[in-house]
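Supplementary Methods S3. Complex input for the adenosine-5'-diphosphate-bound model.
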Amino acid sequence: MSLMGARGLALSAIAVDYGGVRAVRELSLTVAPGEIVALLGANGAGKSSLVRAVMGLVPSSGRIELDGRALQSFGPEARARRGLAFVPEGRRVFGDLTVRENLEVAARTRTAPRRARLDRVIALFPALEALLGARGWTLSGGEQQMVAIGRALMQEPRVLLLDEPSLGLAPALAAKMFELLGVLAASGAAVLLAEQNVRPALAIATHAHVIRRGALVKSVPAAELAMAGDLGALFLG
Ligand SMILES: Nc1ncnc2c1ncn2[C@@H]1O[C@H](COP(=O)(O)OP(=O)(O)O)[C@@H](O)[C@H]1O
Ligand SMILES: [Mg+2]
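Predicted complex, serialized as structure tokens:
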């Protein structure tokens, strides 16, 4: 399959091995600008391994392209400079830094655009404004998740990778977070979303890929999967 020249993120035959454990097997998919692609699957299916491989955080084979240009020879920092941002599982907010510092640490730019980016993130997550001076360790789980996503948005990414961003969020906050991903995609970002929280992910996604033991077992428009009755059976097969 030739993916050369495609806009957005294109993965071709990605494989991840952990010393004999094959976590991802020759997996291919694309995420165009404006799309939200949901990567669904049971615990251990290989979702985290795939998104971490795309960010360059675990070694992989295969081809990773952004707008037709190969990324696989670059490390995570260089991939970030080229427009990839990653929200890892379990948040990773710096406890000793304030919320403002946690956000600004991601924007490697001069003062003026940094301020404009901060304003944009606060426009998306108004609740962050009152928290700007609070230290990371004082935040609730939901607040930390907002900061983690806000930090990725400070990079104004062209591709946003998220690993189970709704994990540990109260349903109302998770709904808000998913809604925000929709806004982000509408502004032209390509979003790849690994989730176990299937229904709300399908509600905002354009495409869905079900992954089982590291391989895609189903790739469909999200709306089609949303109508399927027993999603659990599909995952566990
Ligand atoms: N660092 C690691 N070392 C060895 N095996 C791992 C490591 N991380 C994940 N795995 C294994 O790879 C497979 C896929 O895991 P993972 O990508 O975390 O799946 P998911 O995110 O879908 O739960 C599992 O069998 C898991 O045990
Ligand atoms: Mg995972």
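The longest helix spans residues 171-186. Residues 34-58+75-236 form a domain with the Rossmann fold fold (CATH 3.40.50.300).
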